[in-house]
Specification:
The structure is a single chain. The N and C termini lie far apart (about 60 Å). Strands 1-2 form a two-stranded antiparallel sheet. The chain contains 13 helices and 2 strands; from the N terminus they run αββαααααααααααα. The protein is mostly helical and about 300 residues long. About 25% of the residues are buried. Helices cover about 75% and strands about 0% of the residues.
Length: about 300
Amino acid sequence: MEEKKKNALVEFFSRRAVQKWVIVILFLIIPIALLVVFTYLPLFDMVGYSFFKWNGTSKQKTWIGLNNYIEVFTRPEYLKVLKTSIYYFIGSIVQIILALFFATILNYKIKGRNFFKGVIFFPSLLNGVAIGLIFLLFYKGGGTLDSVLTMLGIPQQALPLWLGDVALVNISLVFVSVWRYMGQNMVMFNGAIQSVNTELLEAASLDGANKWQQFWYIILPNIKTIVSLNLILAVKGAISVYEIPMIMTNGANQSATFVMKTLDTAFTSRKIGLASAMGVVLLVFIMIVTFIQKRFIEGKEED
């Protein structure tokens, strides 16, 4: 009798386990299929196309080996757009610092802090096209920025063309990106800071630690995972910028980014093989930077 009960229990739990796995597979099969069809298969196709000379429509593909990759690293026009990413990377660092500053300040009991959180976060809710159009009016000659500077006593003739000057155009575009995404980072940092044990901060305050010391020795070490994640996203974002410069300048005055150049190569110049090689280079670069940052962060944690 006991043996029958044991067998029945084993059969019941094994049946439950099978049902559980069937449910898991049914839930996962659609997202996995979509991921394979729309991510991994196009990725493998892109890698394959990068070894051919092809215009994207003809049936004839000419095998050229690594020539596309050699062209990416030797042609000045392709290397020049990589320099634009430096502006956005520096802007991303400034954005992280500002977001961390506001997240820390607004974590304390300040009157109206929820209002200020909303004000800072609001730009991240706006559509990229709307932001681009808003800042086109902001930067245009005689626009909002020029009017404010003129009211402060700066002559109109002394004001530059914010989107027409090669020395200023990328700085102006980076400012838009910082304004747009700072609130998003601030919310992430604020959530991480709120998870820090308040007893540690209270004890530090009783021991005479000021706000800066509390931040440097207690808050920052406890949120370094979120900070490192934002740094990785900053590098990724810096070399994959597209929306704002495309809307505001269309790549004029040396404001084209690597992604813009890749799409122009693919769909305007009809060089699908070369554009695929540029896409592979972008992917590999992001993976290398992410790996280095991850190893660096893990090494810091072990120390």
